[in-house]
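Worked example (supplementary).
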Amino acid sequence: MEDEAKASGLEAETQKKVSDSLSKIEAALAYWDAAKKKPRRLVRRIAYLKMSHELLSGWEKESLKGSRDFSSVLTRLGKFADICERLERARARLEAG
Amino acid sequence: MGGLKLERRVEDALAAAGEVTQHARGLEQAPPQRERTAGSVAAACDSLRSLAAYGRTINPDFSVPLPSSGTPAEQLSLEARFRTSGRGHDRPQRFLRNFSEARAHSQEEERGVLDALRRIRPHIYGPGVALSKPPYAEGREAPPGSAERLSAGVAGWFGADVLGTALSARFARSPPVVTSESFRFFSFLAYLEGTPMYAGAMYHTGTNHLSINVDTFMDEDMTEGDKRNVLAHEMFHYASWLGGGSNIRYRDAQGGPVFTEAMWLNEGMTELHAQQLVRSHGQRTSRVAYANETTVAFYLQQLAGTDIVRAAYLSGDFTEVRRRVDEVLGGGTFEALLATGGGAGALLFLRERAEQKMPARLAAWDNDALIRLAGAAAEAAGMGRQPPGREAGAVESVR
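After joint prediction of all chains, the assembly is encoded as:
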């Protein structure tokens, strides 16, 4: 039971962090879409942000609507960890140029 | 007129200058669009960097480490499965209330098997092949000494002292129902499942229904103890399913969850516990099913302790058994034992390890009455001789 409560708490904390990140990504994408002149140096970063938004918003939907049993919560946390690994790899490629 | 024109032109110029000034002031206060975009993108990327770093630490609170292989999702799923397996089942997925319902269930199963056989062997199992005829249409027709008559008494042995309080309560709420079936019923099932044709009994997984082969059960060579042992064996399969014992698993030396398909271990444990239960009620048996596997289960019981082994068998979690066996016989012994795949190979492996570390204890184990009986059967089977009567090979059950 204790671990189940911890897992649920961990997922709630993760939802909040994901939501914060999604807000910042959406603001950046909104500015980009509104900009008349789009600096070339930001193009790859915008692609990275779009990819991140797709992954994280998908996870967020699943997390908010999904079953609350222990196994499902752990599976979603595992998927989140996978997403973060992908984001880190994408970021590394971005920085490598 | 000229003065008015000039005054107007000055006013216009002043107004225009004011607009420019105002516009310039506006420009000074608001950063350029491109800077806002760049700043926002940078903030979003920083946020993602922090999120990804957080994702790396997603399992800081669980008390056991995750398995070392597989993606994070696979590792967490395996851990979740390990923990939930131990809960077992509160009740059968399909509960049969009485003999009639269980009889109907047998016919349903047999019909399903016959349909499958007709599809794959139409020239043998044509429309003329009928379902087997059950030995007793009604439970009250079962004679003294039949499985139906003896089952209530054997089920009564499965109290809290045998199963523990919680599991015995589940067992009592959904007691097993027993039906006798013909040899033909078992031969149908054996054909598809690849089990021995002389299967003596089976537990229908997920239900509370046990089927007993009437031809082997009522054979004159079967003692009262042998009959009760067959029933106890199948009832232990049912109890073990209720307790989560179908999922044999353990934590390795690093604490990671491991699942194994070692059903041979489950059969040996089932037979061991059935034999010991029957003997504890003063009944004698003349045969031991799964002789090699039962002997291995006995050795593990001696190494790890009776209560530890019983708890492991009924719940499926062999972590403590693994720890104790490895402590005595050396690290990796338990996993290597599982890797033998059962049978004579498993027994030989464990005996060799025990002989190195504790030859005197091994000799004492082999002197146990049950092991002497099982040893006879195993030895005879290994030498390829057909023993007199039916002592070797024994009546084996089908799950």
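Two points are worth noting when inspecting this output. Confidence is low (pLDDT under 50) at residues 24-29, 59-65, 380-399 of chain B. Chain B touches chain A at residues 33-34, 36-38, 40-41, 43-45, 47-52, 54-56, 58-59, 61-63, 71-77, 79-81, 83-84 (CB under 8 Å).
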